[in-house]
Amino acid sequence: MKSTETSPSAQVLNTSQPEEFDLVILGGGTGSTIAAWTFAGEGKRVAVVERKYIGGSCPNIACLPSKNIIHSAKVASYFRRSEEFGITHDGFTIEMSGVGDRKRKMVVGLNEMYMENLPEDGRRVHFGNGPVPGSENGGSHPGRWDHTSTAGRECDR
Which end of the chain is more exposed for a tag (fewer CB within 10 A), N or C? Predict the structure, then answer.
């Protein structure tokens, strides 16, 4: 499985030198990805800090992989009931490794799509943690920030 960290098309921030961005987004989920695409499309310099799953949990480990496996189960169910549809067969087996491979191929394809769109619209991705200066998690980030918006509420520095 191809890792997003090693994707050749990704512009991944691996520098200790301070950089200036118009917007830094913590978390690479669906909402963050849409926000990054939108602001980068308006000419803003955008950095996305993501711990692990670009695109969020839905396309990587939750919604879409589950639906992919459920679809395989539906196909097996239809095949098992094929005589109802006028189709005869001599039997079949389900290769769970093939079901898993199909799911992984879908996830890799989605990750590659997210990563390949990065250079086109001016976004950059940094894989790691993004502690906010003065937060409970400690740490500081070399740079300046004037405004932040967090999951439903805003605060000014």
Answer: N
